[in-house]
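Sorry to interrupt, but I need a hand with the structure work. Leave the record below and I will have a look:
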Amino acid sequence: MRHVTGLPEPRPTWSTGRATPPGRVGDDPAGPTRTRRRAPVVTAVLVLLLAGTAVLTVCLGTPTVSPAALLDLVAQPKVAGIVVTELRLPRLLVALVAGAALGACGLVLQESLRNPLATPDLLGVGPGAALVMAVVVVTGLAVPAALYPVAALMGALAGGGLTVLVARSVSGPTAVLLVGAAIAAAVSGLVVAVVASAEQLQIAALFTYLAGSLAGVTWATAIPALLWLAALLPLTLLTVPALDILRLGDDTAAALGLRPQRTRVLLLLLVATLVAGVVAVAGPIAWVGFLAPHLVRRLHPHARTRSWLGLAMLAGALVTAVADLAARLVFAPVETPVGAWTAMAGVAVGFAGLARSGRRPAVPVPAADADPTRRTGQT
């Protein structure tokens, strides 16, 4: 596999709000200087928003702590200090790392499948974990609470593995996406059937987890998930060369020596493994994998894949942290699932993108631009 630069780059037509004809990877019609200047600006804005959200997360709630008093509380733990260090801090770290993982997974899926609607929710990973947890709770299996994340992890890997296994027998990114959606729908149906047979108290306990929630996260549950995600998340950077080639289309990728189907299966396996770590501790948090890539494409539409991947991690962490802050405070003292807030934001962004796309006519692509070999001279 060789890294490709200088080849046409097909882009989603409505994720950036307009149709973009193919061009060199990283090209900007306004000039390369503008592209280079925008990257650090977008990164700085996301980092500042993330830092502000983190401070608000550890300070707001009951009890409320001023930012100036945080260091004193950590050095001399009181009741407020225990709340901050033992409850809010691990919850914040899980939100940040899980959001970064979901953002990276969403970008990898959308780029590899060349479909802006591809999300980790369509891999069967979340429904697989939810099914295992529902079975454990409803049947009353003697599984210690400390092993719940492990059980969810096994279910998530089974759901994602089934998608990967079936996807090996189909060809084309659209077929892979349809396979994932079908398996996710089938497993979700089983979850509904299991929950329907539960008792009232069991349904209440399952509801929060199945909607995606960070409530009750402590260091004991956070550390295994953080180690899992911290070990796997850097591997997504290794996918950048393959994503650059897959964006050119299967025929061009095959001509360049890449086996598109096998590469796509390996990428799906990586995504499934990452999402499993998130689901194990927080449940199936929906739409973050959809929101983060579209947000960074809107902020920096002509960046390279590597830049998009890093920005998608930042955006995913920001979306999840903000959603969790809203889940904890908006209806306080009642806490709502974080997945409900990310779902509302995702649906709103989806409708906005579709409406914006419908108002703009598609830009016709000149025949010469549509043929990569004619623009680059490569065969």
In short: The domain at 38-356 is CATH 1.10.3470.10 (ABC transporter involved in vitamin B12 uptake, BtuC). The chain has 16 helices and no strands. The CA atoms of residues 112 and 243 lie 6 Å apart.
